[in-house]
Design brief:
Blueprint lengths: L3 E6 L4 H12 L4 E8 L7 E4 L2 E4 L1 E2 L10 E4 L3 H14 L2 E4 L15 H4 L9 E3 L3 H16 L2 E10 L7 H14 L31 H14 L5 E8 L6 E9 L5 H10 L3 E3 L11 H4 L5 E8 L6 E8 L3 H16 L4
Parallel strand pairs: 1-2, 1-6, 2-5, 6-7, 7-8, 9-10, 12-13
Antiparallel strand pairs: 3-4, 9-11, 11-14, 13-14
Helix pairs in contact: 1-9, 4-6, 4-7
């Protein structure tokens, strides 16, 4: 089997480290692994398959000879190095939002629009984590009948804000127990014993940048330019795994049993729908694995063709690192 030279840009961050775990778990055929980060990380080492790999400073010449670069850095870093990566001959699979809505850049969830990877011009974008989890949950329904609209509420874990998010949550939990004062740094308000309906920057229409991603990215991934989505994104005091409530309307009337059977057979999903037995998706069930769990499936009480569901998935894995590795696997013809 052919082996490939892979670099990780932003290797020391939470997503970069998770990418390493996924590469090992999926036994990706590596000829070379190059770990790239900022100058302040040079000298550090990260263990991979029993070996210690030294962190190298990311420079314009760091990508020479690589086949793929997995991006796990900020928009600014992705933009700064994208041209160098493409010119080196590598394919840049980027987890930032820098290129997601660019017409010439495929935005890909492999189980949904995997063939789009082959139309790349050197850059492929990884979608927003909540978008990936939501679309994985509804894909089986969308195959049965065109989804016309969705009302979505996300319940996003603190780790979605980066490594400091869970630290702030834990620190605030300790402060609460000790009756100490709390001063938020990562989030806009205290997160312990609270939920915050504010992720991203507010726009003139009253929605946030994070909320608009569900519609804008969803349209591109599903090849469905008329999809209508109204989304509210909420930060919740959970360490890992996002949960999402979805109320959707389909073009055709669908039988609920048919819907459940379709979800149960959808690749990358697990039907987890036994509410009478207290069986439904939760972060504590879905963390540290790659399936999107779907449950609480029921008919809408306000629209004849409406379906309501609840889903949960690990946003660091399938919502970021795993999806990027799966894109790379799709490109080289490996089974996802």
């Amino acid at each position: 089997m052919k082996k490939y030279r892979v670099g990780i840009l932003g290797a020391t961050g939470a997503v970069g480290r998770e990418m390493l775990k996924i590469l090992e778990e999926y036994d990706f055929p590596l000829a070379e692994l190059r770990l790239l980060a900022s100058k302040r990380s040079v000298g550090k080492t990260i263990e991979f398959k029993g070996e210690n790999y030294s962190i190298e400073e990311a420079t314009k010449t760091s990508f020479k000879g690589l086949d793929f670069v997995l991006g796990a850095a900020s928009n600014e870093i992705a933009k700064a190095f994208s041209e160098d990566i493409v010119q080196s001959g590598a394919i840049f699979i980027d987890n930032s939002s820098a290129f997601r809505m660019k017409d010439t850049v495929p935005l890909v969830v492999p189980e949904i629009n995997g063939e789009d990877v082959f139309s790349n011009q050197g850059i492929i974008a990884n979608p927003n984590c909540s978008t990936i989890i939501a679309l994985m949950a509804i894909q089986a329904i969308h195959k049965l009948s065109l989804i016309e609209s969705m009302v979505v509420s996300t319940y996003q874990a603190t780790s979605g804000a980066g490594a400091q998010g869970p630290i702030e949550l834990r620190n605030q939990m300790e402060a609460i127990c000790k009756n100490e004062s709390i001063e938020p740094f990562v989030f806009q308000h205290q997160i312990v014993e609270n939920v915050i309906p504010h992720i991203g920057s507010f726009l003139e229409n009253g929605y946030t940048t994070e909320e608009m991603k569900m519609q804008n990215e969803g349209r591109k991934i599903l090849h469905h330019p008329t999809l209508k989505v109204s989304c509210t994104c909420v930060r919740v005091p959970v360490v890992r795994s996002h949960s999402i409530s979805i109320d959707l309307v389909t073009e055709k009337h669908l039988d609920l049993n048919v819907v459940k059977e379709a979800i149960s057979k959808e690749k990358g999903c697990r039907l987890y729908d036994g509410p009478m037995e207290n069986v439904y998706p939760m972060p504590i069930v879905t963390s540290n694995q790659d399936l999107v769990y779907v449950g609480r499936i029921r008919k809408s009480l306000i629209h004849e063709n409406g379906i309501s569901l609840w889903c949960s998935g690990d946003q660091i894995r399938k919502g970021a690192a795993t999806n990027a590795v799966q894109i790379m696997m799709k490109l080289i013809g490996l089974e996802i």
